[in-house]
User: Fold this.
Amino acid sequence: MDGRKDFLLPSPCGRVNLASNNHNQTMSEYFPNVPKIKYEGAGSDNPFAFHHYNPDEVIAGKTMRDHMRFGAAYWHCMRNGLGDPFGDGTAQMPWDNGEETLENALARVPVFFEFLDKIDIDYYCFHDRDISPEGESLSHTHEMFHKVVDELETYQNNSGKKLLWGTACLFGHPRYAHGASTSPSADVFAYGASQVKNAIDATHRLGGPGYTFWGGREGYGSLINTNMKREVDHLAAFLHMAVDYAKKIGYTGQFYIEPKPREPSTHQYDSDSAACLNFLREYGLLDHFKLNIETNHATLAGHTMEHELEVAMNAGALGSIDANRGDELLGWDTDQFPTNIYGTTNVMLRLLKMGGFTTGGLNFDAKRRRESHEPEDLFHAHIGGMDAFARGLKIAAKIIEDGKFDEFVKNRYSSYDSGVGSKIESGSASLESLDRYALEIAPPQLASGRQERLENLLNDYL
Ligand code: XUL
Ligand code: CO
Assistant:
């Protein structure tokens, strides 16, 4: 369980400690103790500086900024009170009066853009309900939503900051307790469709190159009351409607599905990369969707992040990344900031090999720990994540340039480059021809996989 259910709902949980009632519309600096974060190099001991992320430095033919396309998550930065299942929120947000009003929603926008400016992050992502509240009716909800979208558009235009992707929160409100497109209620399906229509409109208007579907409740609590076949059919119908609507309004952004195996559902239909790809293929959606892979979701699925990335890449379907990490001692989606250089190196290795992002980026779907409740902690958290990815990028570029791993792996499969192996790969071998072949040769001699040697080599780069 994570804190999002506390802050995406107008629930008292997680909001209790936020209201300080000293919100001041004319305040120009919401983070007065934090300077604009700049690169100072590895020798710096300034905690408000990048020690490794140098946005304009060119690595492997591109600036770090262009490789990374870092994004900040509106939900974690602006709406996460840092509550957990056992306690209320702790986050100090002096700009937020804790009310679910349009006025308070609008008041958060300049804070977020000051944050983006000071942390030097170019992109952001949001759910509809992060940026604006539920209203008295669905039309009132949409009306407030588009007013905040107007405000975001103004701030984007004035700052040059960009939307990476938009999405609709189809998991927070109690109406989605049984799912949205997979709810047994067709009226709930329709409400979800209405939210998605408006969220796609907003993403289109804000120039977002991507739109994400994360189906937190698109799964089941138990099969005892579930018609899985109908639910999955409905999920596919929902996504087809989104594809059709995008076409109709001329939105050419990339749709993403974000896999996660469970939490809050017991089983989420988009459980991992392979399950998503199979679903997309089965329902004729593969041409319209790529995957947004999140590290902590890979862990929950019992996979490494590298595994999830490679499954997606091999299908030409790696679209974007939600950057974070889990905690080995906790079995849930802790959404911690990525600080593990092994992890970031492994991600950047795949990304470089893929040729980099087109529409996607590295969105920090990550939150501070509950104890890191001061506004400046938002900066320490993102600085650490950005520096960790910068180091991962540099290490990965060097590994690729040296080519030692690639050469080893290439040699490991070289028996398929000629002779019987190339016949197998080209499809010109058969069980009979291989039977004749195998009977004639000496028993196969196996070469070592040298896993430990390669692990040592990787450590030499770190
Ligand atoms: C939930 C999660 C979501 C998606 C967007 O675990 O990762 O925030 O990224 O809905
Ligand atoms: Co995510």
